[in-house]
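Run log // design_07
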């Protein structure tokens, strides 16, 4: 090409096939949730989708999962009903290796139903133990508590734009300590739990220190039949001779939103 000259080659446009569909919205949101948890000090864990029957029943209050015909090990005999048991096993492995401050999260599918008609959904969960402030020479640290893990959950909810539609209600759950467990409701629908892991659960996984956890199922793939899509618009507003006021910026943003609503029947997420 250098010897003959680039201008001697014919111009051929690359053949690129455009996709017919946008990427599922849940993929984008889940990646953003992962990034948020990493920013808050969590490390991502990937655990088996299978769990032991005894641990499963302790976590679920006696419910069993879909049994595998040929499990690879006796402690991996059922499909998991929740992410928490696997996360606790991973946390315990860290503690036994002298890692005292542990923050782990996982996103993945949980399974229920029957072997002939299995069902599954996408969840995200996390576990924390140890110091909430890290090691500081100039001040005394403190251990994590319920409000720390609740703050992590609230950050995920804010990311989804659902903070104004979310309630935390005290409840009882076999995986969590009585009096330190809340059920999470979004628009009146149950979306998960947050709280201190019960002593019974910690005994089964051989952990001898307080652990706090959460699990959410507000992450779902879009309905393939839906005609609605999410789009992001970025506006750059500026004046050539002065700074714009907040009121002027808000007025332009409102005008754009109103135009999208009137011409395309579009709405802001969260409305």
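design_07 sequence
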């Amino acid at each position: 090409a250098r010897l003959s000259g680039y201008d001697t080659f014919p111009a051929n446009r690359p053949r690129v096939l455009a996709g017919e569909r946008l990427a599922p919205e849940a993929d984008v949101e889940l990646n953003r949730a992962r990034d948020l948890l990493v920013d808050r000090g969590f490390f991502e864990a990937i655990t088996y989708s299978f769990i032991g029957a005894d641990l499963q029943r302790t976590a679920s209050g006696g419910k069993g999962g879909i049994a595998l015909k040929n499990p690879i090990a006796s402690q991996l005999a059922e499909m998991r009903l929740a992410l928490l048991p696997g996360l606790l096993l991973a946390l315990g492995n860290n503690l036994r290796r002298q890692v005292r401050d542990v923050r782990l999260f996982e996103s993945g599918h949980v399974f229920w139903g029957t072997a002939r008609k299995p069902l599954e959904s996408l969840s995200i969960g996390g576990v924390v133990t140890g110091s909430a402030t890290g090691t500081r020479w100039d001040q005394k640290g403190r251990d994590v508590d319920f409000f720390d893990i609740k703050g992590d959950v609230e950050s995920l909810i804010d990311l989804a734009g659902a903070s104004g539609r979310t309630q935390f209600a005290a409840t009882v759950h076999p995986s969590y300590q009585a009096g330190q467990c809340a059920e999470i409701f979004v628009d009146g629908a149950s979306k998960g739990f947050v709280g201190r892991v019960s002593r019974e659960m910690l005994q089964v996984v051989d952990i001898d220190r307080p652990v706090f956890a959460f699990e959410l199922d507000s992450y779902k793939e879009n309905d393939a039949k839906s005609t609605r899509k999410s789009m992001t618009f970025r506006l750059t507003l500026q004046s050539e001779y002065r700074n714009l006021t907040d009121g002027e910026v808000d007025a332009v943003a409102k005008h754009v939103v109103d135009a999208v609503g009137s011409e395309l029947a579009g709405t802001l997420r969260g409305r």
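The helical segments are 25-39, 53-60, 84-96, 146-159, 199-204, 246-264.
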